[in-house]
Amino acid sequence: MKPSGNSFQYITIRVGLQYFSIPSQFYTAVLKLLQAILEDSETKAEFSNAKRGPHFPCIIGIDRRYSDKPKLTAWHRQNLDAVEESINTPVIKLVIEWVSSVVNLVFPGVADCFWSSTKWHGITAPFGLFWNLCINGMFEGQRHIHCLPHADSKNIVGNKKKFNHSKQTWLVLWEAGVAIELLPWVMAAYPSSLLYHFNVDISVLEVLKPDPR
To answer: How many Å apart are CA 124 and CA 193, to the nearest integer?
Structure first.
């Protein structure tokens, strides 16, 4: 994982949305939306060798990558009633508001770009600042979701089950030369359309940790 000529710094972030029952409620809402497709063996086989990892990337909301005008994603259109029910649950609305407020606070220039874009296109973003939402669904038998190296945008990670965050699923930002430990429901906001990033278990690396004193 170590790029030529560079060394990695190891960072732990310990502030997040870990209060009340929000993670459990979010997990329930997402499971209700995706349970049928995550239990489908044909879908699991289809994504077993996917470029970004063997999970199901459910993208809902508005997209315009391959069309002249913005429109709902194919999966959103095909599952319209279920998606609308899911995104209108209180916990989903709360998480959307939380993420958008953090971006407004930390990256006001980025937030202005989002608002200007939606205004120019004459649409209303369904997810606060954001046009769409990608939920990475874990198939039966998977231990965790590790994204393979790629660049995109708007990432947020949540997990209902406990796992050893000090050793598992660290976020690597390749160009920045950092591997970041994220507790469940900690938000990481970064320009992921520009930075190559992926997940890795820290236990597979040869790490020399400095003396904390």
So the answer is: 22
